[in-house]
Amino acid sequence: MRLRFSTCVWIGCALAASSPTAVHAQSTRLYVGNSMADNVSVIDLNSLKVVGEITVGPHVHGMAVQQDGTRLFTTSEGDKTLRVFDTSTGKRLSEITLTGRPNQCAVTPDGKYAAVPIRDTDSVDIVDVAQQRVVKTLPVKAPHNAFNAGSNKYIFVSSMGDHAINMIDLEKLDYAASIPAGGVPRPYVITRDARTLYVAVSDLHGFVIVDIPEKKVVRRVEMPAEHPKPHEHPYEPINTLTHGLALSPDEKELWVTSLLDDAMYIYDVNSQKIVGRVLTGSGPNWVGFSPEGKYVCVSNTATDDVSIIDVKARREVARVKVGHVPKRLVAANVPTAESAQPSAWR
Fold first, then answer.
1. CATH classification (class only), 24-340
2. pLDDT in tens, 190-202
3. Alpha-carbon span 114 to 179, nearest angstrom
4. Is-contact 84 125, C-beta < 8 A?
5. Rounded to whole angstroms, what are the CA distances from 28 to 31, 113, 284, 326?
6. Does the structure show a pLDDT above 50 at 61?
7. d(Cα 110, Cα 104) in Å, to the nearest integer?
């Protein structure tokens, strides 16, 4: 199968309508899923403090925010659901039953579709958000994470079993391509032009770079380590040396977790070199940038907190306590309504 791209595919479509509540301002929020609890911690990235909690369901796993910031999507492993929340009020908008135990979800920019990997049935659910139901389930061997690179037509899901990232055509509700990952894929990111894949793989302290149109691994980057011997982490296999990674909004830097050093390593995309390191809490897991690129945020599973790092200064400026075993997180500019108060979320 040949992989074809149309430039217009990757241009953002019209955003979905926001909540009927009158919107007066925007706030930059970080949503942190507490995987061994039933809630999401909400951090204000202006004050760098927790300002609320959203009750989701047992064992929060997936986290995604619609591009316009109006809706938060979460998955719950404990009751096999996808829940959608109004970000201005924290109120639940819908609860969608999935076909099995979900992992990391992704949503299209227009909010029409969400993709949810289902671990216990080797499949991925495609959810029509307006219809509030699964409209297609596709087979995938040992699925893990879904990802959207800014397209309303395509969405991606990783296969740990096939060592691949599969691209789903949402018009056909079927696969369009299978892209090699160069190993067992952990988290991954894709550039906005959908040409380059950066993927963390098992047994590598670093990441793999893949040319998507050519379906070819072009580089395997091994990061240095001050503590090169793998050691046990309570919530990751011992061969997971790198878990989370994220591209800066300008796509000039890739920030990558180190479970060997409890740190973030910084990779300069243009020079293709590691250019920095910043220490985090224990067990850095998931990584997300604030929308303007000022902060990079890292969940620390072993210390139940989030490291917030000033990107330019290359230093941790806050370590914020959240719930039990934080994993997935996502930052977004969200609307705030005059009537919405953080206390309403508790």
1. mainly beta
2. 999 999 999 999 9
3. 20
4. no
5. 10, 24, 22, 19
6. yes
7. 19
Q: Which residues contact 317 (CB under 8 A, 6 or more apart)?
A: 48, 295, 308, 309, 310
Q: Name the token pair of 90.
A: 């924290």
pLDDT tier, 11 (very low <50, low <70, confident <90, very high otherwise): very low
Complete DSSP assignment for 39-87: EEEEEETTTTEEEEEEE--SSEEEEEE-TTSSEEEEEETTTTEEEEEET
Closest CA relative to residue 62, chosen from 150, 18, 125:
125
Cβ atoms of 43 and 306 closer than 8 Å: yes
Q: Hey, which residues does 71 pair with through a beta bridge?
A: 86
User: What is the pLDDT, as a whole number, of residue 1?
Assistant: 34
Asked whether 43 and 50 are in contact (CB, 8 A), the reply is yes
Confidence of residue 231 (pLDDT cuts 50, 70, 90): confident
Phi first, then psi, for residue 326 (nearest 5°) are -70, 140
Q: For the chain, how many residues are written?
A: 346
Q: What is the mean pLDDT of residues 38-62?
A: 96
Name the pTM for this structure: 0.90
Q: What is d(CA 196, CA 217) in angstroms, rounded to the nearest whole number?
A: 10
